[in-house]
Design brief:
Elements (H helix, E strand, L loop, with lengths): L3 E6 L7 H11 L1 E5 L13 E6 L8 E19 L7 E19 L24 E4 L1 H9 L1
Parallel strand pairs: 1-3
Antiparallel strand pairs: 1-6, 2-5, 3-4, 4-5
Length: 144
């Protein structure tokens, strides 16, 4: 059975989250770190939504979707080129990447999302980089 996730990209130093996301999509891979939530359960064919955190271009928005094609385990110690303080455990390799024509602002659908209980502090539900959500919430975001 496939699962549904939100992958969050955040600003880092002078790099804005959207540019980091664009680099990752260009490479068709997304790094997962040693302490990333859901690290051990995300798998091939799971469906992904890409979310941009931070405060710059397309902040607090969903900007695309994809499917996990494979998971590549790091065989040696590697650091993320975009976030050099983070050690990479594995990479999600993507297929069927789609960037949305327009970013989908979370604030417009916040009240419809079940995984966010306290709507006033929605950002807390997006911490950690990999958030597992229901099929229903996934569909609501896509339709927004």
């Amino acid at each position: 059975m496939k699962n549904f996730y939100i992958l969050v990209t955040s600003d880092y130093n002078e790099k804005n989250a959207y540019n980091i996301f664009k680099n990752r999509i260009k490479e068709k891979k997304f790094p997962l770190y040693l302490r990333t939530p859901n690290l051990e359960i995300i798998k091939k064919n799971d469906e992904i939504l890409f979310y941009i955190a931070g405060k710059y271009m397309n902040a607090q928005s969903f900007v695309g979707k994809s499917i996990v094609e494979e998971i590549e385990i790091s065989k040696e110690i590697e650091v993320d080129a975009d976030k050099i303080t983070n050690e990479v455990s594995r990479y999600l390799i993507f297929k069927d990447i789609e960037e949305f024509k327009e970013a989908k602002k979370i604030k417009f659908i916040l009240n419809e999302l079940n995984f966010i209980i306290n709507k006033k502090h929605y950002g807390a539900y997006l911490l950690g980089g990999v958030i597992k959500i229901s099929d229903n919430d996934f569909k609501k975001i896509l339709k927004s």
